[in-house]
Amino acid sequence: MKKVLKQLAITTLIAGGTLTTAHAKDWDMPMAYPDSNFHTEYGKLFAEAVGTCTGGSLNIVIHSGGSLFKGNEIKRAVQVGQAPIGERFLSAHQNENPIYGIDSIPFLATSYKDSEKLWDASKSAISDALDKDGLVLIYSAPWPAQGLYFKQEINSVADMEGIKFRAYNTATARLAELAGMSPVQIEAADLTQALATGVASSFISSGSTGYDSKVWEQLTHFYDTQAWLPRNAVFANKPAYDDLSEQEQNCLQSAGQLASAAATARSEQLAGWYLQQFQENGMTVLPPSDQLASELVEFGDIMTNEWLEAAGDAGSAIVDSYRASK
Ligand code: PCA
Fold it and tell me: Which of 60, 71, 72, 185 could form a disulfide with 47 if both were Cys (CB 3.0 to 4.6 A apart)?
């Protein structure tokens, strides 16, 4: 995939690129996840492809791990032009607009195939919502499916009572509340510390974030609930984007398309590998018990209805068209 991305950048350059760097622009790109995370790796390849495609006139500089702006600051920073481009975990903004949370409705889309279909059904509404926020959607890629992490064996919702649960958006806080746990909002970059200090002792996320956080040093059980595949999105500040030449805009979009395809493939390839790493590091990795699975599906039904109510007719139409495409 890396090769494909480079090849395309070179092809685009030969086909239509200009080699002038007279008006070279440096674009800082804040990203929230660590260097080794696959979203960051493909963000870097995206930046490289844009540089090659534009003949160096647009130079994207990646700042990983929340080093320039923390995860929860990135969307705002790009909206107000403090950064011209950035990557953010989209459903963390569902409190601003329910459409951003469509990928975090429990059990609506639980495979890569369905995640792609849900994205196809919702992309234009998400792009419109971003546009209203002064942002231009460049690309998006899913995390692996979300599973539950605990410090003890959990066989039912009753076993979760009172546990401190790290949430990353309003949907995960709602899930915690339905299960009788106490939610606390924490960015991925602060997760290791939160687990180490006991601020939280459970969470829901992909194997990817558990792996990045060396979760086996703190927790013991992973339940592979495959509840949803939430997305990161890369977006640009609208005025900064409008200032680019048409060729530079085309380069952003074509490099974005490739980065999305490559990062999605990598996400799928790594999904099982992360869980193997948990086992090799002594964790218990299991599917949820039948009871837990059916209780979680009930929460999913409640949360689907709540989301549909919040998102109104436009939201229902998207969910209907997604379901029809399955
Ligand atoms: N990792 C990120 C978001 C979803 C995921 O898999 C996190 O836990 O913050």
Answer: 60
Q: How far is the CA of 206 from the centre of ligand 1 (A)?
A: 6
What is 72-90 written as a DSSP string?
HHHHHHHHTTSSSEEEEEG
Domain count, the chain: 2
Ligand 1: atom nearest CA of 32 is 9
Structure tokens at 52: 């090659």
Same domain, 69 and 186: no
Question: Token pair for residue 77?
Answer: 């920073």
Residue whose Cα lies nearest atom 4 of ligand 1: it is 205
Residues 80 and 220 in one domain: no
Cβ density class 63-95: b for 16+ within 10 Å, e for less: bbbbebbebbbbbebbbeebbbbbbbbbbbbbe
Residues 25 and 72 in one domain: yes
* 19 and 61 part of one domain: yes
Give the number of the atom of ligand 1 that is nearest the alpha carbon of residue 144.
Answer: 6
Digit-coded pLDDT (tens) for 257-304: 999 999 999 999 999 999 999 999 999 999 999 999 999 999 999 999
Q: In this structure, what CATH number is given to the domain that contains residue 95?
A: 3.40.190.170
Could you tell me if the CB of 91 is within 6 A of ligand 1? no
Average pLDDT for 39-66: 98
